[in-house]
Amino acid sequence: MSICENYQKKFKQKAEIMDKNAIARAITRISFEIIERNKGVDNLYLVGLISRGFFIAKRIAEKIEETEKISLKVGRLDITPFRDDVKENTEDLSEIPFDIENKKIILVDDVLFTGRSTRAAIDALMERGRPKNIQLAALIDRGHRELPIRADYIGKNLPTSREENVKVQMVEKDGIDRVVIVVEEK
Question: Domain 19-165: which CATH class?
């Protein structure tokens, strides 16, 4: 089954996990943790995974700018060409308006699950240069890792079953901010 067919399945909402206020609080917490762990924001750049990870990265950058009065550059990373479950050639829609060489890069994703998207993101970044280090921020960590990857910054740990899916909705793309658990309708 292709990725497109997989996303076209019908799902029903099981539970709302986060509303817009909970998402805003999680982004604020992640922002402060980033500042604290990096002892400021010198040489720090955010790269959000297309599409919702990019919106989260932009919000983190805005929150950091409010606090530190420094504007961080934010890039968007398309991992599709680097995925191990997509075989056709696809256009790379990444936009990283800065050199990543010897920079502290924070990858931002909406949901951390098996770790395969993060592996693809690291591959995509390394093709563009060698950062000083790569850190990972995720709004939701739902477990079920297949690779030895962990997030440095987590908005919410959300234990789920493999039959459940976590859907992050962002106002920039979906018209609403929320996180829901959905299950496939039978």
Answer: alpha beta
